[in-house]
Structures are given as C-alpha cells and as structure tokens.
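can u do me a favor
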C-alpha cells in the first residue's frame, strides 16, 4: 500500500464502518475496545479485498491497540504522559497515519477527539492523522451546531488530516 492510497482507503473504511451499528453501551466490554475490534476487522477485510493479500500480510499495514501492537515508536509524550493513537496505518513508501476512534453526542467530545489527534500530529511520528467520530444518537453533521468557529476548526483539520465526520 502506498501513501497515495490512504485517502481512498480511509474514505472506503468510513463507508464500510457507516454500515455497522456500534451501540454506545454493551455489557461486558467498553465502546473503545469494540470500536477498535470493528475497525481492525474492517481494515483487514479492505486490505484483503483491495490488494488480494492474506490476513498476515494485511497486518503489516494496520496496527490496532489491543489487537496487533506496533513494535517501536508509536506515539509521543506530552507533559510526561504517553500518547498513543487507537490505530496506526503504515505505507510501503514510509508515511505513518495515526487513527483516532471516538464517540459521543456533545461538542466537547468532538473537541477532545480533535485535540488528541492534533497533539498526536504535533508530538508523534505521524505524517497524517485521521479521526473517525461516531455520533450517538446518529445525527447529520448539520445538527452539530456548526457555526463559523466550528467550520474554521474543521477546515484547519481537513488541511492537515483526513477527517471523517
């Protein structure tokens, strides 16, 4: 997989993930753990389908916390605290993409997800960041109180990252 494929892969994964229902609450497991599992399996299937490779080979391109950890540097440190993304995608031609998965229904949750992704870009070893934000209950983006300030923030992040909202 080359870096030129990243935008298309992330857009396609957003489409595939949008077909899945990921309840906010489920007994016995956290939302984060279930989201990472779903993302991992979705990306493995996309790689297998798109590149005609087996799962073992696909695992070399996508690393997900709690599933198959990347050995070596996988984040950064800020104020003495380690900061890791939920997933990392690595391209054959070198670039590394940090992927954050988050959910919620408030602007503060969206703000926190964008902030974490932005900090990952600043202190991490990443060439690009992607944010997948799941809104509960499902809303259309127009209902998220997007004014001038919100549009400015989204424009800023879209220039520097791949965002799915």
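np, heres the sequence
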């Amino acid at each position: 997989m080359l870096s030129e494929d990243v935008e298309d892969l992330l857009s396609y994964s957003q489409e595939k993930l949008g077909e899945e229902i990921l309840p906010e609450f489920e007994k016995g497991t956290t939302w984060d753990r279930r989201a990472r599992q779903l993302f991992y399996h979705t990306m493995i299937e996309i790689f297998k389908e798109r590149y005609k490779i087996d799962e073992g080979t696909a695992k070399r391109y996508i690393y997900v916390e709690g599933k198959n950890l990347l050995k070596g540097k996988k984040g950064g440190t800020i104020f003495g605290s380690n900061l890791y993304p939920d997933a990392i995608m690595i391209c054959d031609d070198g670039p590394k993409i940090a992927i954050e998965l988050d959910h919620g229904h408030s602007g503060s949750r969206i703000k926190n997800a964008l902030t974490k992704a932005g900090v990952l870009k600043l202190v991490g070893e990443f060439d690009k960041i992607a944010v997948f934000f799941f809104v509960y209950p499902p809303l259309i983006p127009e209902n998220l109180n997007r004014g001038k300030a919100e549009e400015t923030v989204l424009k800023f992040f879209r220039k520097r990252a791949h965002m799915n909202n």
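Strands lie at 62-64, 76-78, 81-83, 87-90, 96-104, 128-135, 162-164. hope that helps!!
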